[in-house]
Amino acid sequence: MKNPTRYKIREAEYFLSMMNYVFEDDDSFSYNLSAFLSAARSITWSMQEQYKHRQNFDEWYRQKQIKMSADPELRYLNEVRVEDVHRKPVLTGATRERSIPADISLVERGTSVAEQAKEVEPKPPTQRRSKTVRRFFPKFGQVDVIAFCENQLAKLAKIVEECENRFP
Fold first, then answer.
1. What is the mean pLDDT of the chain?
2. Domain assignments of the chain as residue spans, ordered by start
């Protein structure tokens, strides 16, 4: 493998894309969120392993660790990963829309009640379907899960890019 750190970024991107793909399925979404959290967390571990022998890397990375620790969103990303891996699956809230089908019959003015009754044919009831429109972390201001993960992955990718430029 040419660049293990970039591999980890692509792995996290993959699970993030799968979260979008399986958005409607609660279990599949949860499995892919779990995998994303683990992959995202392993980006900096992989970077440390890959670059630890470069001159001044440790000093540079210690400063990055301080900044990452001060970032409440990156801290939360790690907290939910720890919860997911070591305690219990991370629960996300979901906002769902429910559509209710309705049949409407329009009748011309002056049509007798008997004729109106002939025009209306009873139809079998259709199922009410709910659609998931949003998933969120209840413990973090109800922020959208996918948007949150995208933002944290972008922050991690920026750190990796800076590392690659500084330690070619």
1. 86
2. 4-98+136-166
